[in-house]
Specification:
The protein has 12 helices and 13 strands. By secondary structure, it is α+β, with helices and mostly antiparallel strands. Helix 4 runs antiparallel to helix 5, helix 4 packs parallel to helix 10 and helix 6 packs across helix 10. The longest helix is centred in the last third of the chain and has 25 residues. The protein is globular. The relative contact order is 0.14.
Length: about 375
């Protein structure tokens, strides 16, 4: 797992950080920019009360920041561990630093992010538990929250790139195939799936685990103790189909991309998303080969089954959610392909193009191709097998 490394978009000096900390009755001792993250500007701040995490929320409204803060505190009352969010002297959960840039201050949490090699069945099971706990904990929230990564928003981003000459010249065939996929998804995704507040971005880099976690036995599974993980970055939390949130985590945590696949991910840009993928004999052969090598489509069988089992240990999936999972996996793959094209590679933007290690759009494009080559029924049946 290669972290996304980039200088902060908003560069803060000592005077500016001290002015922010003054709102919390804190004094600055030192600080350092954290070169990790796709959207926000992050800083490690050393104060007279210890080490803190300061986040400049880029492009976020005050209402968005207020929702995130209320969600963090709500989850804390339900036992889901998130880094504690500080209140200012006036009781506000953030400092309105500049328009579109509320600043939030968190306690620093010591831990480590998992690499692909470390993310085994035990951790996958626990990640599934954490996601289900989040879904159950927010079931009694009175108000939902519309996120920015709706199908309409994703389609608008794609349209913006299609109107960008630079994007067309570089990845035009990719954009064409993504447009066909969005059309297929608009006719295929189920509209009656159970919905609730989801994380919407539960990747390994949004989870922290103890540096030396104790282990105990749960049946035949050696697993980290319950509630050992910290859930980070709830800024994209929104009302979504709950099975979509699970699909995001499956692709993010249980579908590591082979290095060679990155070099050939655009070879099938012209592949038409099949109306009935299970009917294509070549696709079935590809799926069988993937299964024989320990994968079903892009998913690693052992960790994907473990994550689903961990989730269902707390919240069982309905038959409708199982029917909807395949399309939600494909939508998640499309979403992250498009957002990485726009946010990382900067296509469709006035900002300069920048290719960043670890956030290449081809990773999710490869996952999408593998999903297209796998049948709905075969994938779901595979995930329901014991792990």
């Amino acid at each position: 797992m290669n972290p996304f490394v980039s200088p902060p978009k908003t560069r803060l000096g000592a005077d500016e950080i001290q002015a922010i900390l003054r709102q919390y009755s804190l004094r600055l001792r030192d600080f350092a920019a954290i070169p990790q993250g796709t959207i926000n500007s992050n800083y490690c701040v050393y104060s007279d009360e210890g080490t803190l995490f300061l986040r400049v929320c880029e492009g976020k409204s005050l209402a968005d920041a207020a929702f995130e803060s209320s969600l963090i505190w709500h989850l804390g009352t339900r036992g889901l561990r998130t880094p504690p969010l500080w209140r200012t002297r006036s009781g506000s959960p953030f400092v309105p630093f500049r328009p579109g840039q509320p600043v939030m201050l968190f306690s620093w949490v010591e831990g480590r992010q998992l690499t692909d090699a470390e993310l085994d069945e035990a951790y996958a099971f626990h990640i599934g538990e954490l996601l289900a706990q989040l879904h159950l904990s927010t079931a009694d929230l009175r108000h939902g929250h519309v996120g920015i990564y709706t199908s309409r928003h994703i389609a608008d981003r794609l349209q913006r790139m299609q109107n960008d000459a630079l994007a067309q010249a570089a990845v035009g065939s990719v954009l064409t195939s993504l447009a066909r996929e969005l059309d297929w998804l608009s006719r295929t995704r189920l509209r009656t799936l159970p919905r609730g507040i989801g994380h919407s971005d539960l990747f390994p880099d949004n989870l922290l685990f103890p540096k030396k976690p104790p282990r105990h036995r749960l049946g035949s599974l050696s697993t980290p103790p319950q509630h050992s993980g910290w859930v980070l970055d709830l800024e994209q939390a929104a009302t979504v189909p709950l099975i979509y949130d699970l699909a995001v985590s499956l692709l993010a945590c249980c579908a590591p991309v082979p290095e060679l696949a990155m070099q050939t991910a655009t070879d099938h840009d012209h592949d038409e998303p099949p109306e009935q993928p299970e009917a294509a004999s070549d696709s079935m052969a590809d799926a069988t080969a993937a299964s024989d090598s320990g994968r079903m489509g892009p998913l690693q069988s052992h960790t994907a089954r473990a994550l689903v089992a961990g989730y269902q240990s707390l919240r069982a999936l309905s038959s409708e959610e199982w029917r909807g999972l395949y399309a939600e996996l494909r939508f998640a793959a499309v979403r992250f392909t498009i957002t990485r094209l726009t946010d990382v590679h900067r296509y469709g933007s006035v900002a300069p193009i920048s290719v960043v290690a670890g956030k290449d759009f081809r990773a999710f494009l490869w996952r999408l191709h593998r999903l297209i080559a796998t049948s709905d029924e075969q994938l779901c049946a595979h995930l329901q097998q014991p792990f």
